[in-house]
Amino acid sequence: MTTDQQTRHTVAFDGKTGEWFGIWIVNLLLTIVTLGIYSAWAKVRANKYFYGNTSIAGRHFDYHATGMQILIGRLIVVAALVVFSVLAALPLVNLILIIALIFALPWLLIRGARFAARNTSWSNVRFDFKAGYGDAFVTYILLPIGVALTLYTTIPFLSRRVNRFAIEGHSLGRSGFKIQAPIRPFYLAALVALGWVLAAAALGAILLAGPFLALISAGEAGVEPDADVVAPLVFGFYALLFLGFYPASILYGAMIRNVVYTHAELDGGHRFDSTVKPVTLLGIAVTNALAVVFSLGLALPWAQIRLTKYLADNTHVIPNGSLDAFEGQLHDDRNAIGDAYGDIEGIDLGGAAI
Amino acid sequence: MAISKGSTLVAPRSDDDLMPGRAYPPGRSVALDLHLRVRGRTVELVDAAGEVWRHVARTDLSVDAPLGRLDRKVTFPDGTVFETSAAEAFDRALGPHKAAMLHKAEAFHPRLIAVILASLLGAFAIWRLALPVLVAVAVWLTPDGLRRQIDTGQMAVMDRLLLDPTTLSEARQAEIAAIYADLADAVPEGDLPSRTLLFRASGIGPNAFALPGGTIVVIDDLARMLEDDPDAMAGVLAHELTHVTEQHGLRALYRALAIAVLVALVVGDTGPILEEAVLEGNILLALAGSRAAELEADAGGVALMQLAGYDPEGLARFFDRLSLFMGDGGGWMSTHPGSGDRAQAIRDLAR
After folding, report:
1. Higher pLDDT, B17 or A39
2. Nearest to A132 by CA among A107, A101, A159
3. Closest Cα partner for B180 from B98, B236, B113, B250?
4. B230 three-class SS
5. Which of A19, A82, A250 sits opposite B69 (nearest CB)?
6. What contacts B97, CB < 8 A, 6 or more positions away?
7. HEC string of B122-170?
8. In the structure, what pLDDT confidence band is assigned to residue A119 with cuts at 50, 70 and 90?
9. How would you classify the pairing of strands A270-274 and A264-266?
10. pTM attached to this predicted model
11. What distance in Å separates residue B214's CA from the closest CA in chain A?
12. Minimal C-alpha gap between B79 and chain A (Å)
């Protein structure tokens, strides 16, 4: 389409469901048999498979962390969590610990991102991640509090900040990433997401209000609120979550991804593009989830390949000149504490990192 | 047929061991079309003209574990990387990698069915054996302060969604508080994280429930229904106190969290929606409680009543009234056993 300008490379993903299924199920079995210890090596094999099968202009990504590094990181984090819980039993100490954790969180996030970046390469050049503690503290601790104070009307500003933090912290070798994005498309995405939640809530209220009221007023006696009584209320709450909030967050994420990629740039004038269709992505997420549930989890490898393939097919790089010129030093990063904390607590940058 | 490794004395073999591929200079993105040549104990990178670019001992070479159909990859001591898709020639020339067995086991093959079955069996074993241990350790590690914080959080949510301020008279509240005090005094020292008794109005029927931190909530309708029967009121409170001392609520909560963490670590990234479903769905199940926990609370309640000087018959009477009021309840789907069975079990225990 853009033949008049530069070439446009679509990210290629060549992972195959059958092949990944074999790797995944062997990972799973070895993890169970070794009481979880192998999960560190399983993570390396999974990342190597997905990165190695992802390429831009015929040049592959790779993952370089070792299972031992990840295992040591996880053991340290688990030990720290145990010590933390034991110490938290002491009256004043628990308050100090919680404050300490709040201040440690930005550091853990930076270390986690740095470990991941330094152990990722494209075309033999390692990524890196550098960010100031203060920047991370503002982005992940102070701003979320500020956003809550504005009754979440400033979420788009937080999204932009989080993505800028992730993008601008990363570099490929010596070449840094930059992003300059206006706030308008972020607000547009938030409005679409809000619209979805309101529509889901309205539809839910019309369809479910009747049965709910009937069930609630027929309150039964018991020594607990019986599941029959509470279930409709809880069910309504979860319906709103699963039909309203989660789909809306997927739509929002897809729109933000497109905005972030189109406004990001790699030193040297290399540009990016993302053509994810929010509704298609939502469809994939929903059908994936259903397939996994109804297959007792066995369809998960298929679902992961399908999602990764869709995202790759809709991610493009518009290089400005040769891709041969990247270079960088090899920073050995064996400190997987931040990475392990992210794995266990489920916290990461949450940005649209490359 | 075994292929001999060859020795340095053997003359260089033909193009068989010349593998085409791409080489990357250390830390640079430029790819060069070179060939890898294995000659006895040395490995070389050569170009089309036959010029040697790198020449190292086989043992100084770092060889990546084979994975799927991915290109085979070696790293030279100076950081030069070489990739080739000629997997067969690569394995022949460099010998099997120490992870070759793993690579073979991962191949898409009918024997994976055995791996699937073993994994499902293992997952079941974790659920039945490892999960209870994890939960017990987590419960043991949880300080009382955290339990009380959980209560405060849950009450805030329920006050907003489900509960209204009580309309009971001060006198009636004091009566129930006195019964509560008798029972709580009979609980062994240290088993109650807090002594908190709350009254709330609600449309959820005559009810009472306990939170992990020791908070017990009595719904107005229940207080009115049992106005004439202090033993029955004591029965309900003793049942709830047993939930607290046996840590049923905390156990259920940790079970939900432990399942979410185990799924993340064992199965891997479950993707959007499912990730939330695993956590939230489990908490939903945890809220519903279990039949076993209810029966345990009935039995513990009977013992506690006897200790505090109340007649356990009160709790049995309560269940009689329940079944008169609303039928037996407690089908096989329900989280609560039937009222008739429970009254009978309580009378058997009290005897």
Report:
1. A39
2. A107
3. B236
4. helix
5. A19
6. B63, B65, B66, B91, B103
7. HHHHHHHHHHHHHHHHHHHHCCHHHHHHHHHHHHHHHHHHCEEECCCCH
8. very high
9. antiparallel
10. 0.83
11. 15
12. 9
